[in-house]
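Section 3.1: Structural characterization of target chains.
Under the original work plan, the team committed to producing a structural model for every single-chain target entering the pipeline before any wet-lab resources were allocated. The record below documents one such target. The sequence was received from the expression subgroup and is listed exactly as submitted; it comprises 136 residues.
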Amino acid sequence: MIDIFANTIFCGKCETKMERVQTVRNGFVLRAMSCPKCNAKIIHPRDEQEHNDFMDLKKKEFIVKMRYVGNSYTVSIPKEIVNFIKEQEKIMDDMVKLCFEEFGRISLNFGNNNSSNNHIKLNGYKNINGELRQEK
């Protein structure tokens, strides 16, 4: 199946050829098309759906058990969260980063993401007014 964004897309408002851009929402890099003339945007439908799935999952609160195993405590991570991480093709390794952020709050970071340093590097793109546009 051919991706719709592989084709030339013209703006529905001003009939100008749209440019490929990437926008960032809640840490998600979303593919989009943007009109350089009127700034109309079209977000890729698959990326929009994945973002919406993340937002729905983020609203849920899971009650999990903490158990004592050997010299450590373990916490089970709901399968729904693990499946979402795998679907996003993020690196799922045996090792994750665990940080004690503040009293009563622990963060668990998967892959190479570092919560204190969320810089996104994309080769071939430049930042124009908070929007990542493909360099020419």
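The chain is about 20% helix and 30% strand.
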